[in-house]
Design goal:
By secondary structure, the chain is α/β, with parallel strands linked by helices. It has a single domain, classed as Vaccinia Virus protein VP39 (Rossmann fold, 3-Layer(aba) Sandwich). Helix content is 38%, strand content 21%. The protein has eight helices and seven strands, in the order αααβαβαβαβαβαββ. A seven-stranded mixed beta sheet has the order 3-2-1-4-5-7-6, sandwiched between helices. α3 runs parallel beside α4. The protein is globular. The two termini are 31 Å apart.
Amino acid sequence: MEFIDEAIEEYARLFSDAPSNLLQSLDRETHAQILQPRMLSGHLQGRYLSMISKLISPKLIVEIGTFTGYSALCLAEGLQPNGRLISIDINEELETFTRSFFDQSPFAKQIDYRIADAQQELAHIDGPIDLVFIDADKRNYANYFDLIIDKMRPGGLILVDNVLWSGKIVDPTARDKSTNALRDFNQKCKDDSRVEKMLLPLRDGLYMLRVI
């Protein structure tokens, strides 16, 4: 993921709001205790998710891929008072760790954390959905998109992480399955007239899709 100049990223962090004490604690504990801590959204992306959520004031957020809960807690900051966030992850080994931070959050009662296969679980979620964040297994991004697009409200946002894939997406020699799946997904979104799209070079690449 470290393909954007570190000095630029540090400058951007300095001129952005700091994450809450709870998020800082979650960041530290994830790096201390959990494998692959770089999967955590982190400071800049977390503040971006929070800002977007606050701008649209969602009643229903769906997150596909929870990891240790950093992105969910950021997205929850913009929820309406009666809103809820459904976060789905298949990794039950992280459940206790993640729930412990959700329970400390002021949004604890609004977060519906589900250990499940997202492709199956999404069938049981009714719309309209205001905001979706996809950050799970890359080879199924297209499937997740297809499962949620018709449940989105007009004007709703779909945010998709890792779409630059550590810069491999523009490396013609990178032909692994995940990279190819992301290339196909990005092209699928570009060609879909149901969404307005903007690909942001934020952290590992964030695709912003507005449902028309």
